[in-house]
Amino acid sequence: MRKFAFLLPFLLAPLAAFSQALLARPVNFIVEYAAGSGADQLARVIADSVNRNTGATFVMKNMPGALGTIGASALVRSPADGYTIGICSSSVNSIAPSVLKSVPYDTVHDFTFIEPLVAYTYVIVAPPGVGTDSLDALLKLAASKPNALSYAYANATAQVLSAALAKELDVKAMPVPYKTSQESLTDISQNRLAFGITDMGVTAPMVRGGRVKALAVLASQRSASLPEVPTLGELGKPSISVVAWAGVCGPKNMAPEAAAWLRAQIHKARSEPAMQEKYKLLGLDPLELGSTSFTDFVVAQSKFWSAAARDAGIKPE
Fold first, then answer.
1. Is a pLDDT exceeding 60 seen at residue 108?
2. Residue 152's closest CA among 119, 114, 129, 124?
3. Where are the beta strands (DSSP E) in the chain?
4. Element (H, E) at 238
5. Are 239 and 76 in contact (CB under 8 A)?
6. How far is the C-alpha of 266 from the C-alpha of 262, rounded, in Å?
7. What is the pLDDT of residue 16?
8. What would the pLDDT profile of 188-200 be if each residue is shown by its tens digit?
9. What is the rounded CA–CA span in Å between residue 165 and residue 125?
10. Which residues contact 34 (CB under 8 A, 6 or more apart)?
11. What is Dmax (Cα atoms) for the chain?
């Protein structure tokens, strides 16, 4: 090994040069959803941690709309020099082609997948105090009024989960798309919708505040964020347990030294104990892939969600 030790400074030089350049220039961080959304909260805590560790500056750019494809399109069109990154996710990279007739990017080949971050838990919520304080009560109401009730979703992941849930539980209700989960939760809290499927990060605070009622989590086990809420399996219903995921990515063919530096710093940030605590507060679980590469994971997830959307009867619109 000593024979090759002299090579180490030359191998690390590109990373050191990129690190110095990065500290002098802000990095644009594209988030495909609105400020305050689960993806936005995740991006900000990661950016804050990397900033504290390195001094790098991140400029958050929220670009919501079209189930996240507007922001993703902006990301893939950006220069691949390391100064623009974004949140990739199950909605943007795994599901969009199954629910939209036209997606203006290749969900795998137009991205550089830098670092996986988290898995999301989704939860079924209903208005509080209107007689649907349990899943059985909601199902009974839906059965008595076929196609009269409406439910909300705000991203492609929630859209597929909602359709799969409605099929498994034989619920006939009208789907209503929303631009953000916050908007859908506001309408649910005001009894304008019968229920919704939303991610734990934005839902848990409203549940704790009594503004919406959580009926069940769509996972194999209860969430640490709302430990009192049962799973579908615990309620005797068909279990729906999926991986709704998020990570950090950039445009395709990103400069290798840029991707390597960002990967190292983001991995360090997501591994810090303080970050793990923030994950819990946001209702998130670390996404650990083991020996599977991030890109291979995305490819496999695309196949899984495509089949899930087809089985749920969703047709691209």
1. yes
2. 124
3. 27-31, 58-62, 84-89, 111-120, 122-126, 150-153, 174-177, 195-199, 213-217, 244-251, 284-286
4. none
5. no
6. 6
7. 57
8. 999 999 999 998 8
9. 13
10. 40, 62, 64, 179, 180, 182
11. 78
Beta strand 284-286 with 195-199 is: unpaired
Helix axes 8-24, 256-271, angle to 10 degrees: 80
Residue found under tokens 């999926």:
242
CB 246 within 8 A of CB 118: yes
| pLDDT tens per residue across span 13-35 | 555 555 666 667 899 999 998 88
Element containing residue 242 per DSSP (H, E):
none
131-176 pLDDT, tens digit per residue, is: 888 999 999 999 999 999 999 998 888 888 888 888 888 999 999 9
When computed from its CA atoms, the radius of gyration of the chain, rounded to whole angstroms, is 21
Torsion sign across C-alpha atoms 246, 252, 256, 258: negative
Q: What is the mean pLDDT of the chain?
A: 88
| pLDDT at res. 190 | 95
Q: Residue 108: which H helix or E strand, with range?
A: none
